[in-house]
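Contributing new records

If you add data, match the layout below exactly. Sequence lines come first and carry their own label; structure lines follow with theirs. Keep one chain per record. Anything else will be rejected by the validation script.
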Amino acid sequence: MGEMRRISVDEITEGSVYSEPVFFLDGKNMFLAANKKVKKYHIFAIKRWNIENLFTAGRKLSEDQVKKLFPENVEQQVTQKTPEKLQQPVVEELEEIDELEELEELEEV
């Protein structure tokens, strides 16, 4: 890892990804792992805790780099690479269960 640099929380937006972990001021407690997307709850947390700056030895990835890490059509890619017989459902038909009837039986015991 390289030298740590300060990141203003204003730079951190939903969907941002950093090449190295992002840490709180102490440099030990991690805010976000490397190559993970910033979620709404991350932003909510840093605002709620009045955090002004975070630190990383990495850099913010470009939109193209993020798209390569998190392709939108992942499900389609997985389906294309999965043998056809594994794509078929294991169970042909599920039997319907009457939950209310089961609960009444339990109450009687």
